Amino acid sequence: MDLGNLLRRIMASDVNIRHSIVTDAEGKILATDHREGVRNHLSQEETEASLKRAASAWKARKQLAPKIGTGMYAVAAFEKITRMTFPLGEDHLIFVSMGSDPVRSDLHAGGQKQIIEHVLNILSRDPTKE
Hints:
single chain, Beta-Lactamase, 4 helices, globular
């Protein structure tokens, strides 16, 4: 799987996406893409620690899958960003962040709901949904 290409497609799907990252199940960063001109709020170390905590939370959710079904995504909203987490296969996660001040500049760019739809469609690998 070409993780760089996958992240480029996700970034291109909506101008409000600031950053996208693929990690393993432990939260170790495997690939990243960042919107040009956008400054990170967290240091590299803070980002890595945050992703490890989010990956741990995702593992806990997976334990409930037999009772409530497989997780499709999770959303964590903060004052400055919203981070969405998506499973990528069994052993990887994709983290997508958007700012709290959307810059909707065309009809294909929107907020959290549209970004979630775009990413789920890309991950479905069905080109008719993108």
